[in-house]
């Protein structure tokens, strides 16, 4: 039986535009939300990029393309030119130039203090965000620093190891987020009885999309929000 679920655009509309760019985020609709990745610079600013360097997404002749972003200042990051000619965005820019809810994936634990400081500057944006990570310690720390933050617990091959739930108040747990390949209907039902939502990542074909719908997830992260659509639950998305 298919279930209505919210659609999240992975790294923006990554199949349509270069991932983690302002263009991709602004093209995320008709998704209900979009996902992005963050690292911190050497001067403690939050930038939006997936890898530890810009090499995969930067223009071949770009400055700093092979240097770890943690060793670069925010000013040096802005000297990087991406493949599509755009600059690397900051999380601050994304918050101020978009309106959809956002899943913010913490790619390195060092990004937590910078992200917390940014949201202390813009507390009105906190309810838009679901901080997600494979790094359990980063999720515990973001809740310690931002007691009203909501977090999503990323898992890859299994939904079984959820010991982190002993360290984060239930009110802060927005979702468990396994790979679609690891979805387990019994585990999803059990989490739902505890009031915990379940999402999955990353849908790139119709088979995976159907599995997510049949499993009864609340959120499905997709590579192309214009291709993978489902009726959304009534009302606005609130993490």
From TrEMBL:
Taxonomic lineage from the root: Bacteria, Bacillati, Actinomycetota, Actinomycetes, Mycobacteriales
Q: What is its EC number?
A: 3.1.4.46
Select a single GO molecular function from the record's annotations and give it: glycerophosphodiester phosphodiesterase activity
Q: Does the keyword Magnesium apply?
A: no
**Which CDD domains does the UniProt entry name for this protein?**
GDPD
List the Pfam families: GDPD
Provide the protein name. Answer: Glycerophosphoryl diester phosphodiesterase
Q: What keywords is this UniProt entry annotated with?
A: Hydrolase
Q: Does the keyword Cell membrane apply?
A: no
The record's PANTHER family line, in alphabetical order, gives:
GLYCEROPHOSPHODIESTER PHOSPHODIESTERASE, GLYCEROPHOSPHORYL DIESTER PHOSPHODIESTERASE
Q: Which residues form the GP-PDE domain?
A: 5-232
Species of the source: Corynebacterium glutamicum (strain ATCC 13032 / DSM 20300 / JCM 1318 / BCRC 11384 / CCUG 27702 / LMG 3730 / NBRC 12168 / NCIMB 10025 / NRRL B-2784 / 534)
For biological process, the GO terms are: lipid metabolic process
């Amino acid at each position: 039986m298919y279930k209505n679920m919210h659609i999240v655009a992975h790294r923006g509309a990554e199949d349509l535009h270069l991932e983690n760019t302002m263009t991709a985020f602004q093209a995320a609709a008709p998704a209900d939300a979009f996902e992005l990745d963050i690292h911190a610079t050497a001067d403690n600013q939050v930038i939006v990029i997936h890898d530890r360097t810009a090499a995969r997404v930067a223009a071949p002749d770009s400055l700093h393309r092979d240097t770890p972003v943690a060793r670069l200042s925010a000013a040096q990051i802005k000297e990087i030119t991406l493949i599509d000619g755009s600059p690397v965005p900051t999380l601050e820019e994304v918050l101020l130039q978009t309106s959809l809810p956002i899943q913010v994936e913490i790619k390195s634990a060092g990004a937590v203090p910078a992200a917390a400081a940014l949201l202390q500057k813009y507390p009105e944006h906190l309810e838009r965000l679901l901080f997600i990570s494979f790094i359990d310690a980063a999720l515990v720390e973001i809740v310690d620093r931002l007691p009203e933050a909501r977090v999503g617990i990323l898992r890859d091959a299994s939904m079984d190891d959820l010991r982190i739930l002993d360290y984060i108040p239930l009110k802060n747990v927005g979702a468990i987020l396994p790979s679609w390949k690891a979805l387990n209907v019994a585990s999803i039902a059990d989490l739902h009885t505890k009031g915990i939502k379940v999402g999955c990542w990353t849908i790139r074909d119709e088979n995976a999309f159907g599995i997510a719908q049949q499993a009864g997830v609340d959120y499905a992260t997709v590579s192309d929000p214009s291709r993978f659509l489902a009726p959304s639950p009534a009302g606005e998305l609130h993490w």
